[in-house]
Write a structure and sequence with these properties.
heterodimer, A: 254 residues, alpha/beta, Rossmann fold, six-stranded mixed β-sheet, 9 helices, 32% helix, 27% strand, B: 346 residues, mainly alpha, ABC transporter involved in vitamin B12 uptake, BtuC, two-stranded antiparallel sheet, 14 helices, 2 strands, 3% strand
Chain lengths: 254, 346
């Protein structure tokens, strides 16, 4: 098991955001995390990434406690894409992507040929190779998002934690992203993706975790969980889950 | 933004070396020429002179060389500290002076002058007081600005501005209660000047400043990653809290040490990194060392102007940096707005 969370509680001040969440992520899995706004999806991802310390419960990530493990050790095995990302300086897309190689070395040295090969491959997979020399703050929202995905892929991590990676992407790039994640998982990596794109979740995820009000209300096969009464209650919306003639799953409000 | 390489912008060894050699070369020329320039009073009034290392050795070596060295030490420290603070706080306004460090140091110096410490313990007592003042202010601003484990830039800047205003008012209060001669000394000190710097002072400050600069260069890749915020930096492997703490402390102490040598000299820490970012790009692996060199070169230029602009009555270098700094900064803003943008202004 790459990740196991047991009865995890996280609070910001008096407000408890996660109220006893247990979940696992195994190698090869593409886990979609869905839920209404404020359900605790981002907090769960941040807790797994070690960016927030649980007030109770236990998280193990590659047998490390992510909140205490050295960031450099974690970053070689885990890539985290935050929901929001503002770059304060006029860095180019290429410079941002190659920052994903930070943990490979100490000190102020320049990138190695190996770093550049990994960065170029990641840029090609996220369709930002042509933007390498473009300033990231002069790129569109979707292009920035893809640049950051390329940074995460460039880390060559076993575990990808992505917070709304498709939020600013057009449908073609969103599909390409999930296809790329599927390929990563097929070669033994794992991904946990927080998303509001329920169609993508039911179509591409191998497992789906539904959160509501800081607790897990469903964990299992995506189509089954999305069609459940618990998820309908959580979203206050009945979902119609079905199969297209092509064999692909879809989920739309009923 | 057009980077100095044009087109392909990634930092390579060749580009790093080329940038540092170009800036370093210009600084070397300045370092050799600046001590030779002076003014002299002839029959027809003041005129520029170009002295000689050999025949005017005493003048050059005793008075002008320590000034030039002081400019490189102080200017380099201020500019590098500015670039590092801007990175850690992700704020273009972050610099030693907006963080309250210089006001705290000035207050301590003013108090030391008021109570006659220079007379009792020698001139260095003022510098040491300033350093202590800087350290106390840093600790205070740090404590005020810190929220939990993180250091939100807005909170820190607010704390800095608040402390700065308080110390400014307290300095004025001390001046009000001082005698006329001390007030003159205080005002002169607070303008920032390298005219009275001695080799002994430099020998004390230079090793500490060199060590601090080495630390900032070592953290250059961390500073790049921190440009996108502590969480994004942590996700690629930076221990953001630790890096922020170390860089903030080291940058502040660099500022404290330079204030101890030359008094508070404004604008260098704000202006030099901004100007360089437009030339060498934002990568801190070239920006921090380039700031060290260019900060020194810039201050030498200002100080040479300070010596020759009003013959017989030298202007403190801090006045020149501020007078040049304002229009220069406006120029950068206008140019950046016209071309591509400065900070997140596409």
């Amino acid at each position: 098991m790459l990740v196991s969370a047991e009865d995890v509680r996280v609070g910001y001040g008096p407000h408890e955001v996660l109220r006893g969440v247990s979940a696992t992520i195994a190698a090869g899995e593409l886990v979609a995390i869905v839920g209404p706004n404020g359900a605790g999806k981002t907090t769960l991802l941040r807790a797994i990434a070690g960016l927030v310390t649980p007030t109770a419960g236990r998280i193990r990530c590659f047998d490390l406690d992510p909140a205490r493990a050295p960031r450099r050790d974690l970053a070689r095995r885990l890539a985290y894409l935050p929901q929001r990302y503002d770059v304060a300086f006029p860095f180019t897309v290429g410079e941002i992507v190659v920052m994903g190689r930070y943990a490979r070395r100490r000190g102020p040295g320049l990138e190695t040929a190996e770093d550049l090969v990994a960065a170029r491959a990641a840029m090609a997979r996220c369709d930002v190779a042509a933007l390498e020399d473009r300033r990231v703050d002069a790129s569109s929202g979707g292009e920035q998002r893809r640049a950051l995905l390329a940074q995460a892929l460039c880390q060559e991590a076993e575990l990808l934690l992505l917070d709304e990676p498709t939020a600013a992407l057009d449908p073609a790039h969103a599909r390409a992203l999930f296809t790329a994640l599927g390929a990563e998982c097929a070669r033994g990596a794992a991904a946990a993706v927080v998303t509001h794109d329920l169609n993508a979740a039911v179509r591409y995820a191998t497992r789906l975790i539904a959160l509501a009000d800081g607790a897990v209300v469903g964990d299992g096969a995506p189509a089954e969980i999305l069609a459940s009464a618990a998820v309908a209650r959580a979203f206050e919306l009945e979902l119609h889950v079905g199969v297209l003639p092509s064999g692909a799953w879809f989920a739309v409000p009923a | 933004m057009s980077s100095f390489v044009g087109g392909r912008t990634r930092l390579t060894r060749g580009r790093l070396v080329a940038a540092l050699l170009a800036i370093g070369g210009a600084c070397a020329v300045l370092a050799i020429l600046a001590p030779l320039v002076g003014t002299d009073q002839g029959r027809s009034g003041w005129h520029l002179t170009f002295d000689d290392w050999l025949t005017d050795g005493d003048l050059v070596w005793r008075f002008r060389v320590p000034r030039v060295l002081a400019c490189f030490v102080v200017g380099g420290a201020l500019a590098a500290a500015g670039s590092a603070l801007q990175a850690v706080l992700r704020n273009p306004l972050a610099e030693p002076f907006t963080l309250g460090v210089s006001s705290g140091a000035s207050l301590a110096a003013v108090i030391a002058i008021r109570f006659g410490l220079a007379g009792a313990l020698g001139g260095a007592a003022i510098g040491v007081s300033a350093l202590i003042g800087a350290a106390v202010t840093i600790a205070l601003v740090w404590r005020l600005g810190k929220v939990g484990d993180s250091l939100p830039p807005a909170t820190l800047l607010l704390a800095g501005v608040t402390i700065s205003m308080f110390c400014g008012a307290a300095s004025m209060l001390v001046q009000m209660t001082s005698d006329f001669r001390d007030i003159g000394y205080m005002v002169r000190w607070m303008m920032g000047d390298v005219g009275a710097v001695t080799y002994d002072q430099l020998a004390m400050a230079a090793p500490a400043i060199a060590a601090g600069l080495a630390v900032l260069v070592w953290f250059a890749r961390d500073l790049n990653a921190l440009a996108a915020g502590p969480e994004a930096a942590a996700s690629v492997g930076v221990d953001a809290g630790r890096t922020e703490t170390i860089v903030f402390a080291v940058a502040s102490l660099l500022v404290g040490a330079s204030i101890a040598v030359a008094g508070p000299i404004g604008f260098v820490g704000l202006m030099v990194p901004h100007a360089l970012r437009a030339v060498v790009g934002p990568d801190h692996r070239v920006l921090v060392p380039a700031s060290i060199l260019a900060g020194g070169g810039f201050l030498v230029t200002c100080d040479t102007l300070a010596r020759i602009l009003t013959p017989g009555n030298q202007i403190p270098v801090g006045v020149i940096t501020a007078l040049l700094g304002g229009p220069f900064f406006v120029l950068i803003l206008v140019r950046a707005k016209r071309s591509a943008g400065l900070w997140g202004m596409p």
